[in-house]
Amino acid sequence: IFTNNCISSGCHNAGAAGGMVLLQGQAYANLVNVASTQEPGKTRVIPDDATNSYIVIKLEGRQMNGSRMPMGGSALNANYIQNIKNWINKGAKNN
């Protein structure tokens, strides 16, 4: 999902702002239990809590700052968002 929708758009590749590099081998360390640089008090991915994970908030367009992700593109389809939520709600394992 990240490769096809976030990296290929040029937003979350090697030069991503705020450390949001989502390349394979780097995405986990940049997402899970990492504070958001855009929204103080929010965490990018909170294991077992997709509803309050900032990545889900951004994908669903519920953010207070910035734009819905992917920025400038079509919203991810419901299956992709649900897959991300399922991964988070199952503990956001590094797999």
Secondary-structure map with pairings?
Elements: H1 2-7, H2 27-31, H3 54-60, H4 78-89
What descriptors fit this protein?
95 residues; mainly alpha; 4 helices
How would you explain this protein's 3D organization?
By secondary structure, this protein is mainly alpha-helical. It has four helices and no strands. The protein has helices at residues 2-7, 27-31, 54-60, 78-89. The longest helix has 12 residues, at 78-89. The chain is globular, with a radius of gyration of 12 Å.
The percentage of residues in β strands lies in under 5%
* Intertermini distance: 14 Å
**Poorly predicted runs:** none
**Largest sheet descriptor:** none
- Spatial shape: globular
Task: Please sum up the structure shown.
This protein is mostly helical and 95 residues long.
